[in-house]
Design a protein that fits this description.
Elements: H1 3-17, H2 21-25, H3 31-38, H4 46-55, H5 64-78, H6 82-99, H7 105-116, H8 132-141, H9 145-152, H10 155-167, H11 171-188, H12 191-207, H13 211-228, H14 231-247, H15 251-258, H16 266-279, H17 282-290, H18 301-319, H19 327-343, H20 346-362, H21 366-374
Domain HTH cro/C1-type: 10-63
GO molecular function: DNA binding
Protein name: Helix-turn-helix transcriptional regulator
């Protein structure tokens, strides 16, 4: 039993019941001693702690099945196993009324939050009462994934830290974090973490215009995804590869992938139309845009909210040869660009950067173009 965690649980339940310290400890110990126990400053014996827990209806012991559930939940999170994580989350929620009455309450509460991706704040367990795994989850919930990685050595935290750096556009730091995640995942056998890290390393190269580096990481990620039977990861890798090819002017490669999809989504039809635009296939591009309204949509509500405007901008260029002289086209394009920068990963804005710069230069807005370029240093590479 962790005496500090027991003290924190005693204080939490006492306050929840609105009991005074004097009322709780009467006949067992002094108020000052209870205060030390609650603050983790006294190493009280197990018998006294059990008596205090008993008065509050709490237990120092948990059912073996509940302890096993906690272990499975940690493993599912650390292994990035979404299927097992969903099963554990359901079981945790069902067992929560029972778990909350034991010293597994902190583990259960923290795991329920991280497995649900609920975005809720860290609970109020005092850090000094927590073990290493619990503290690492608390750090994660406070937005300190890098510290959680350094504390625990679990690669999923390095992966999450890298995601945050990637979304800020700091691809150098992100690549370092993803590399650390990949190496540690290989040592620990965390195959899904290794897959995600390799995929994101490829994305870093993609967003930096490093096609060969992107291909190297994507090939490895593709093999891992195939071994795992992860169709979603395979489609993501192939989409990113083809989309990057279009962005870098290798339109034939992007066209070969997107034109062969049997049931393309709205976003994939946008990329097909973009490839056709670069290849001078105007009628095929317009035909692809005409299929967007009836096409399957993405899981992301934000992507769905912008894909129609992305298609509208592309259609404008196809139908209005003088689009560069249109102030309305420029206004809408810049508004879309700002929305993509604010609401989606950097690659979405990067895909449209060339068109934004094209319009700004055509309209002699050189300073604005330069200011935007400062936020996209990889564009110079």
């Amino acid at each position: 039993m962790n005496p500090a965690l027991a003290g924190a649980a005693i204080r939490r339940e006492r306050l929840r019941r609105d009991w005074s310290q004097e009322g709780l400890c009467r006949g067992l110990c002094s108020v000052s001693y209870l205060s030390k126990i609650e603050n983790g400053a006294a190493g009280a014996d197990a018998q006294l702690i059990a008596a205090l827990l008993g008065r509050l209806g709490l237990s120092a012991e948990a059912e073996p099945a509940d302890a096993a559930l906690i272990e499975r939940s940690y493993e599912a999170f650390f292994a990035l196993d979404s299927a097992k994580g969903a099963a554990c989350l359901s079981a945790l929620r069902e067992a929560m009324p029972r778990l909350e009455r034991t010293l597994l309450a902190a583990d259960a509460e923290l795991l329920e939050i991280v497995l649900s991706d609920g975005g809720r704040p860290a609970p109020d367990w005092p850090e000094r009462s927590l073990g290493l795994r619990q503290r690492s989850l608390m750090l994660l919930l406070r937005g300190e994934a890098g510290e959680a990685w350094r504390l625990s050595g679990e690669p999923v935290f390095a992966l999450i830290a890298g995601d945050a750096e990637f979304n800020r556009g700091d691809y150098i730091s992100a690549a370092d974090s993803f590399g650390s995640a990949c190496r540690a995942a290989a040592e620990l056998g965390r195959v899904r973490v290794m897959l995600s890290a390799r995929l994101m390393m490829g994305n870093c190269c993609s967003n930096s215009g490093q096609y060969e580096g992107m291909e190297r990481h994507y090939r490895i990620a593709e093999r891992i995804a195939a071994d795992l039977g992860d169709a979603g990861a395979l489609r993501t890798i192939r989409y990113n590869r083809a989309s990057t090819a279009i962005e870098l002017g290798r339109a034939e490669e992007g066209y070969a992938y997107f034109s062969a999809l049997p049931e393309p989504t709205a976003m994939e039809l946008h990329k097909l139309a973009a490839a056709c635009e670069l290849l001078g296939k105007r009628e095929e591009a317009l035909a692809a845009l005409g299929r967007v309204s009836a096409a399957p949509r993405e899981e992301s509500a934000v992507e769905n909210a912008v894909v129609d405007e992305m298609c509208a901008m592309l259609r404008w260029r196809l139908e209005q040869p003088d689009y560069l002289s249109s102030a309305e086209y420029g206004r809408r394009l810049l508004a879309l660009f700002q929305r993509l920068r604010g609401e989606l990963p950097p690659g979405y804005a990067g895909f449209h950067l060339g068109r934004v710069l094209e319009w700004l230069r055509a309209n002699r807005q050189y300073k604005r173009a330069l200011d935007i370029l400062k936020d996209f240093p990889s564009y110079y590479n």
